[in-house]
Design brief:
By secondary structure, the chain is an all-alpha fold. The protein has five helices and no strands.
Length: 93
């Protein structure tokens, strides 16, 4: 609605599906008109972009935690970062 290119939107438009192409057409001139929002949301769901975005977030959080494990930083700082990453990975919009 605000014209931001979110990961679910990018995954949907780049999905190579009919729904993704329709969504790209719908958004071609900017954010959707209020009457087009329900269709845009349906198309996002049809491309399974929410699930794929959540899976990407889990992979990135796991990668960050793994990198943190090998970082040469004080244990208390490592724990603060670990907590921060974990909290972010649980965040919902």
């Amino acid at each position: 609605m605000r014209g931001k290119k979110t990961l679910p939107l990018l995954l949907a438009v780049g999905s190579g599906t009919a729904a993704g192409r329709r969504l790209a057409d719908l958004l071609d001139s900017g954010p959707p008109a209020p009457m087009d929002v329900p269709e845009a949301m349906r198309l996002l769901e049809e491309t399974d972009s929410r699930r794929r975005s959540e899976e990407a977030a889990v992979r990135h959080a796991a990668s960050a935690l793994a990198a943190l494990g090998g970082a040469s930083i004080p244990a208390d700082v490592r724990e603060q970062w670990r907590s921060f990453i974990t909290d972010l990975s649980r965040r919902r919009s």
